Structures are given as C-alpha cells and as structure tokens.
Amino acid sequence: MSTRILLLGLIGIATVWAQGSGQKALPKKAKADAVNYYRDIEPILNASCVGCHQAAMAAGGLRVDAPESLLQGGASGPAVIPGKAQKSLLYTRLTDTTAKRMPPVGMVTEEQLAMIRAWINLGAKIGPA
Q1: Which of 29, 80, 90, 129 has the fewest CB atoms below 10 angstroms from its CB?
Q2: HSE of 64 in the Cβ direction (CA atoms, 13 Å)?
C-alpha cells in the first residue's frame, strides 16, 4: 500500500515538474499504431475543418471530409507529408500566427495539435476504422 502511494506521489511530482518546466507535453501514445486516424484525428477535423473543407465547398481545393482527400491535398499542394509535421500544410496552418492560420475562427487545442503532429510524424496512416 505504501509503495503504491509513493509511486503515485512520484508520478504527481514528475507531472507537475514537466508542466512547470515549459516543455510541451507529448501525446501519451508513443506507438505508431496508437494514433488512430478515425478515433483521434477525424473528430478534430470534423469539429474544426470540415465546415469549410468538404465536397463542392472545399476552400482552396482541400477536402478533409475523407482521409483520401486529405492526403491528396489541395491547390496549395499536399496537406500532409507523412513523417514531417513541420512541413505539412495541415499542421503549419493550424499553428500559424498570421492571417493564414486555420481555422479562421477558433483554434484547436494544444492536445489536438500534439495528436495531429504525432499522427503525421508517425507516417499519417489511415488504417481501419
């Protein structure tokens, strides 16, 4: 029992230290198959992007209402470069601090950005639903 309390205390201290050190927390999931497009990425895109990037209304020719369309990209080129979040338009537009930032109204959370970054860096796999 006391070992469990000690372990929980150490975990708590480590968490507080990591948050206070100014480091951005990495997603808790580290394995490539742990970030699932349908479970983790699609809901973010549906909430923040699909309103302007779907079917005939696809702003900039980019559709995010289907994973194949997202990977195809739009008028500005590929939206996702598997393994390279920092070079992927999807990620750079979500983190941009200028008028090019997406979505134009509202923002995705740091946790959502971390999930998208991890998904892209792990190869932007679609996998089964």
Answers
A1: 129
A2: 24
